[in-house]
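**Entry details**
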Amino acid sequence: MVRDGGPDGGDDADAKISSSDIRDGLAAGDVARVNDLLGRRFSLHGPVVRGQERGRGIGFPTANIAVGPDQALPATGVYATLASIDGRLRPSATNIGVRPTFDDHPAITVECHILDYAADLYGRDLRIDFVSRLRGEVKFDGVEALTAQLARDCRDARAAIAAAGDWP
């Protein structure tokens, strides 16, 4: 694929983009670079499935997205994202990882906390557009430290999404 750098030529004018470039960017968690390469935001979509409801119990409910085994995922960590619900984009923070604070789930999960939104999404298809990576996955000393960080993640996600400036 060849991508035109736009009217000013840009640094990427006529640069060849390969699927390996995309996979490498995802593996590094560099979704901003992946978005530039794609010319759109990288996204995941899948049905919302029931989880263990730990997020709900600590004040940060999440929509757990079932993704296929062949789905390319960004590196583990927390991302500023936009969740598409009923055709409307909503700011969100998404964790991709194994939830190391709880040490009970070795499989990678995709959990999206939609900011200022509370509705039952079970069984519905949800698309998540990635804006930027906020941080890597961390094992916290306990739930209190985790919830304090989640509050910071939500604040940082809002700021990153606002800085992106190209959503309604």
